[in-house]
Design a protein that fits this description.
The protein is α+β, with helices and mostly antiparallel strands. It has helices at 99-102, 173-183, 194-200, 216-231, and strands spanning 2-5, 20-26, 40-44, 48-51, 54-57, 68-76, 79-86, 89-98, 108-114, 116-118. The chain folds into two domains: 2-146, SPRY domain (Jelly Rolls, Sandwich); 157-231, no CATH class. Helix 3 packs across helix 4 (216-231). It is globular and about 60 Å long. It starts with a strand and ends with a helix. It is found in: Nucleus.
């Protein structure tokens, strides 16, 4: 449930879609950017579905107070079907993925949020927002043997690792960091840097550089402010 669209007075009035919730499924190895890489399947409040940065019209728009149900069906033959409901209304099948392509890897619930407060129901609530379609059950009600645990977070700071890059601009720090993160997927590195932040500041999967032609300093300034906040 989208509980609240949080005030965005700090954003410029030109900001497209200041409030976004995107829900769906992805592999444990995927990044946080739901729907913007392979094996990451999202449905967003703008009325679009996306996987691997390919955005298509799907369902309806949704916003504050709406309830979205994410359904995944593993029992429809050789494919896994993913569909969504808005306020109890079924919106149709959004994705069909062949089981052999998933290769036995588990799909995890995934939510991407921008300036919204949301609430989940995995089955822990006494009352459901809307009735569950026949044949489906909440994840929390599945036997443990039928579930796959996601990556556990570090138990203490001693288990964490920080690598700090030092070098002149354009020396190759980001390039090295991206390669090192890709070579060590189990460590799940978060790369903090203005390049990484600008890459996540996409609109409909497209980089913002074209929106800021001639105003590059504005984009860099925003990314630097985000970076300082993240480091804090």
């Amino acid at each position: 449930q989208v509980n609240e669209e949080i005030s965005v007075k700090h954003l410029p009035s030109t900001e497209p879609d200041p409030h976004v919730v995107r829900v769906g499924w992805s592999l444990d190895s995927c990044s946080t950017q739901l729907g913007e890489e392979p094996f990451s399947y999202g449905y967003g409040g703008t009325g679009k579905k996306s996987t691997n940065c390919k955005f298509e019209n799907y369902g309806e728009t949704f916003a504050e107070n709406d309830v979205i149900a994410c359904l995944v069906d593993f029992e429809c033959g050789e494919e896994v079907e993913m569909s969504f409901m808005k306020n109890g209304k079924w919106l149709g099948v959004a994705y069909r993925v062949r089981k052999e392509v998933l290769g036995g890897r588990a799909l995890f619930p995934h939510v991407l949020v921008k300036n919204c407060a949301i609430e989940f129901n995995f089955g822990q609530r006494d009352e459901t927002y809307f009735s569950v379609p026949p044949g489906f059950t909440f994840i929390q009600h599945l036997p443990l043997a039928d579930r796959v645990r996601g990556t556990l977070g570090p138990k203490s700071k001693a288990e964490c690792e920080i690598l700090m890059m030092v070098g002149l601009p354009a020396a190759g720090k980001t390039t090295w960091a991206v390669k090192h993160a890709a070579a060590n997927p189990s460590k799940k590195y978060n790369i903090l840097g203005t390049n990484a932040i600008m890459d996540k500041m996409r609109v409909m999967g497209l980089r913002r550089q074209r929106n800021y032609a001639g105003r590059w300093d504005v984009l860099i300034q925003q990314a630097t402010q985000c970076l300082n906040r993240l480091i804090q």
